[in-house]
Design brief:
Elements lengths: L6 E5 L20 E2 L2 E2 H11 L4 E6 L4 H6 L4 H9 L3 H8 L8 E5 L6 H6 L2 H4 L4 E4 L3 E4 L4 H12 L2 E7 L9 E9 L2 E9 L10 E9 L2 H6 L12 H6 L7 E5 L3 E4 L3 H13 L5 H11 L3
The structure holds 1-O-phosphono-alpha-D-glucopyranose (G1P).
Length: about 290
């Protein structure tokens, strides 16, 4: 029913001030959960979902993200000489097919909507996924793969959603839900960061989107919204009624790696999900949880 989703946008221009001083000279997207940078989790999730072209919207000081997805010849040579095959395999997994990654500068920090709009010429006239690396989701299959499967049947615009505590709505885009069908819920309204008393529900947008190219035309109007920023949420809200529009209640656990406790929790959960680490980490947690 709908066009395949072949491209994904990764907005990675944010400053990461909540993680200073760690992010003084290092992009927040390169912070590792266990042993993999946040951005690689997002790229791996996209690849698993069938994405072939990866478009990063970067800013100043983000060059190490480009390096991460490139060959590291000296390191590879050394590992080859020392016959460290496992490490070489891990490195090989970071390399995309040649020509499949594009890096675009968002020259001014004008908001998520503006970052996504900066990628428009690389997307063209087809639907595209957007992944926010701060939102790390532990699930099998990955969240975007689940969404792409659901999107195949309904098309249009789609957002990952989950229930949050009503007091937390001001941190999220929040939908006004219409009819539900399994994991799909119709989006009848969408508000960026509403106060709890003004929120239309407690179904919050999590950083996975499938958007139609018409959203770029709306973003081009450069209308400012919450926080005086150009909001993706607002441009999407104006698409309601023009295309099918669904929230998708994904199966998985989401960690907010944009804040310190969420990031720490992600490290614990991902370590516990690793057969080579689970027993040792569980022991440590128990030792701290004693009193
Ligand atoms: C962004 C979006 C918001 C969404 C959130 C998910 O906000 O603007 O609608 O709910 O990501 O993490 P940010 O966290 O960048 O302020």
């Amino acid at each position: 029913m709908s066009a395949p989703i072949r491209k994904a946008i990764f907005p990675v221009g944010g400053l990461g001030t909540r993680f200073l001083p760690a992010t003084k000279s290092m992009p927040k997207e390169m912070l590792p959960v266990v042993d993999k940078p946040l951005i690689q989790y997002a790229v791996d999730e996209a690849r698993e979902a069938g994405i072939e072209e990866f478009i990063f919207v970067t800013g100043r000081g983000k060059a190490s993200i480009e390096d991460h997805f490139d060959h590291a010849y000296e390191l590879q040579d050394m590992l080859t000489n020392r016959r460290k095959d496992d490490a070489l395999t891990l490195l090989a997994e970071t390399i995309p097919a040649p020509g499949n990654m594009a890096f675009i500068r968002q020259q001014e920090p004008l908001g998520l909507g503006h970052a996504v709009w900066c990628a428009r010429n690389f997307v063209g006239d087809e639907p595209v996924a957007v992944l926010l690396a701060d939102d790390l989701i532990l699930s099998a299959p990955g969240c975007l793969k689940q969404m792409v499967a659901a999107h195949g049947a309904v098309g249009g615009n789609m957002l990952a959603v989950m229930e949050v505590a009503p007091a937390e709505t001001a941190s999220y885009g929040v939908i006004a839900p219409g009819g539900a069908d399994g994991r799909l819920v119709q989006v009848d309204g969408l508000v960026e960061k509403p106060k709890p008393q003004e929120a239309p529900s407690n179904l919050a947008v999590i950083g996975r989107y499938i958007i139609q190219p018409a959203v770029f035309d709306d973003l081009a109007r450069m209308e400012r919204g919450a926080g005086d920023e150009i909001q993706l949420t607002d441009a999407l809200a104006r698409q309601i009624g023009k295309h099918p529009f669904h929230g998708f209640k994904f199966d998985g656990t989401r960690f907010d790696c944009g804040n310190k406790t969420g990031f720490l929790e992600a490290n614990i959960a991902f370590a516990l999900a690793r057969p080579d680490m689970a027993a040792g980490v569980r022991k440590i947690i128990h030792s701290y949880a004693k009193d």
